[in-house]
Amino acid sequence: MTTSPTPVYPPSPWNLHAQGYLSAWALPSGELPELPAGITALTVKGTAFVFTAWIDYQPPGQLAYHELLAAVVVHNRHSGLSGRRPTVSITGIWVDSEVSLAGGRQLWAIPKGLASLDFTTGGHFTAVASTAEDWIATAAFAPRRGLPFAPPHRFAIAQGRNGLPLVTPVRSSGKPAPASASWHINPAGPLGFLAGRKPLFSAHLRDVALQFGD
To answer: What GO molecular function terms would the record report (predicted)?
Structure first.
């Protein structure tokens, strides 16, 4: 019996370019998926916050692939990074690249899985994510009027490795624009904790440049 070799992936840091489609959610902290040991959700009066994003990684970045993720806003006391950098922990993430999957797991303990991710772009953005077992989610984004906002240019990803937090710095720049979004989430799937809910807000993150890792 032979095993497939691990795909060769770039060393850290990864320099990536992307179009991102993001939604923010609020829900009772007791309904969150499990977080890694030593990492706790940041809550306000029992309410926790989650970001979901469809990301289309494109040239001239080091890798080109599609991604869907869900990340919980967490306390940053374990970050070991200078400053009080906003921190999230990724609880579900799917890509259509074996290179990205291998690198994300090995370098930063990000629990990437493989999925079919179909994106349609233009004036509007639509996306479908599914695995061999079942569908995960679909979404449609459309531009809307609204005040511009500035997402953080520095944040951190906190994952778990060998029972301890592993924190990775991220730098980003881009052009955020307000959007409306309609999500349909499989209630029996890995994002089922968000099924039937409506996002607090959504945005199109245009021409994003990311440095992941250091």
So the answer is: lyase activity
**Structure tokens belonging to residue 201:** 């807000």
**pTM of the entire structure?**
0.94
Cis? peptide before 33, omega within 30° of 0 = no
Q: Identify the bridge partners of residue 159 per DSSP, sorted by sequence position.
A: 166
The answer to whether residue 133 sits within a structural domain is: yes
Q: Which domain holds residue 53?
A: 16-212
The amino acid at residue 70 is A
Read off the pLDDT of residues 18-28 as tens digits, 9 standing for 90 and up. Answer: 999 999 999 99
In a domain, 1, yes or no: no
Contacts (Cβ under 8 Å, ≥6 apart) of 166: 108, 109, 158, 159, 160
- At 187, list the tokens: 């209630």
Which helix (H) or strand (E) segment holds residue 203: the answer is strand 201-212
- C-alpha 173, offset from chain centre: 16
